[in-house]
Every structure is written in C-alpha cells, then in structure tokens.
C-alpha cells in the first residue's frame, strides 16, 4: 500500500486491529451457528454417518478384494490403510484406477518418510467424502482391477 507518510501510523493501527480482531465475519457466523444448533446432537449425527461409511467400506473391501488383501480399520480418522498382495504394487493399481475409471487412490509410499518395500504394497482410501453408493461402486471397481492383476499374475506364473 502506498500512502502519504503522515498516514502510515494510522494504517498500521487499522491493520493491527483487523489482524487481532477475533470478531471477524467468519467468527460471528460461527458464533451464530453454535447458538442455533444443538452441537452434541450434530456431532452424534456426524459420528454415526462416518461410522456407517466406515463399516460399509469395510464390508465392501471384504466382499470385493482378494482374500490375500488385509486392511486396518481405524478407530478415528477418515482413511483405510489397505495391504495389497505382496506381488501387487500400489502405484500400479493407482495408475490403472485413475486412467481407466477416474478413481483416485494413493499408494502407501506417499505416506512414508522414505519409500519402503512394505508401503509399496499398500494403498490409502478415504471414506469421508464419497456417498455409500459411491463407496460400493468404487470399491467394486478397485476390487475388480485388483483381482484382474492378481489373476493375471497367477496365470503367468
């Protein structure tokens, strides 16, 4: 900002009051929201919704993924950590699902400080955003691709 020298002190004072003012528009909006909703009831709704999605996702993984796949069901958070069969790399499955189906999943090595052989055969899946129907469809598609890779490898052995 360019202002005459005599206004610099005033501009600094206004900027500081804006920076330090906790009653910004978003704070006032949040305050109004908290005054109008039952927060405990809303948190119960959110917890139940995510628990339903997690349970559904877990059931779909058991149904569509090969038996040699395992996963960690978290007690908190929005992600499932899936261990693929040792012969399948997460990056390969990630590329196939992205290119063929526009399904985004992330290989395990993206979540390690330095890549490891173990994380190379893992993927992380999010269940917070997709609907129950999208979880069903997406898990079935990923499972089909995973089974295709796995069965092809078994045939080629």
Quick overview of this protein structure:
The chain is α+β, with helices and mostly antiparallel strands and 157 residues long.
Describe the structure.
With 157 residues, the chain is α+β, with helices and mostly antiparallel strands. It has a single domain, classed as Aspartate Aminotransferase, domain 1 (Alpha-Beta Complex), CATH 3.90.1150. Helix content is 59%, strand content 10%. The protein is built from six helices and four strands; from the N terminus they run H-H-H-E-E-H-E-H-E-H. It has a four-stranded antiparallel β-sheet. The relative contact order is 0.13. The mean pLDDT is 90.
Based on secondary structure, the structural category is: alpha+beta
Total separate domains: 1
The order of strands across the largest sheet is: 1-2-4-3
How would you state the average pLDDT, rounded? 90
Highlighted features:
157 residues, alpha+beta, Aspartate Aminotransferase, domain 1, four-stranded antiparallel sheet, 4 strands, 59% helix
Task: Spell out the blueprint of helices and strands.
Blueprint: H1 8-20, H2 25-36, H3 39-64, E1 70-72, E2 79-83, H4 90-101, E3 106-107, H5 117-120, E4 122-126, H6 132-156
Antiparallel strand pairs: 1-2, 2-4, 3-4
């Amino acid at each position: 900002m360019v202002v005459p020298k005599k206004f610099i002190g005033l501009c600094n004072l206004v900027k500081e009051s804006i920076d330090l003012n906790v009653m910004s528009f978003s704070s006032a909006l949040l305050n109004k929201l908290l005054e109008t909703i039952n927060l405990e009831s809303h948190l119960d709704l959110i917890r139940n919704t995510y628990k339903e999605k997690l349970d559904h996702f877990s059931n779909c993984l058991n149904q569509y993924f090969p038996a040699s796949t395992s996963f960690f069901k978290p007690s908190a958070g929005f992600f499932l950590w899936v261990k693929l069969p040792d012969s399948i790399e997460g990056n390969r499955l990630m590329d196939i699902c992205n290119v063929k189906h526009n399904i985004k999943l992330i290989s395990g090595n993206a979540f390690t400080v330095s890549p490891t052989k173990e994380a190379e055969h893992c993927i992380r899946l999010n269940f917070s955003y997709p609907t129950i129907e999208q979880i069903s469809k997406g898990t079935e598609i990923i499972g089909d691709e995973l089974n295709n890779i796995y069965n092809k490898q078994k045939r080629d052995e």
